[in-house]
Design a protein that fits this description.
Helix content: over 70%
Number of strands: 0
Order of helices and strands: HH
Oligomer: single chain
Strand content: under 5%
Number of helices: 2
Shape: rod-shaped
Largest sheet: none
Radius of gyration: 22 Å
Length: about 50
């Protein structure tokens, strides 16, 4: 029983490390704060006010 608990603990630790690393990766297509995204957002806001 102790051996099973040990393996389960090791698996959960490895899973949490992988999840943490995936959550902190910066390879996303939605980079907020770029000028291009800022321009698109302001154009969208302007088009919504014209309707």
């Amino acid at each position: 029983m102790k051996s099973m608990k040990k393996w389960l603990l090791m698996f959960m630790t490895a899973l949490s490390v992988v999840t943490f690393a995936a959550g902190c990766s910066s390879d996303s297509e939605d980079d907020t704060g770029t000028e291009e995204n800022m321009d698109e957002e302001s154009n969208t806001d302007e088009s919504n006010t014209e309707e």
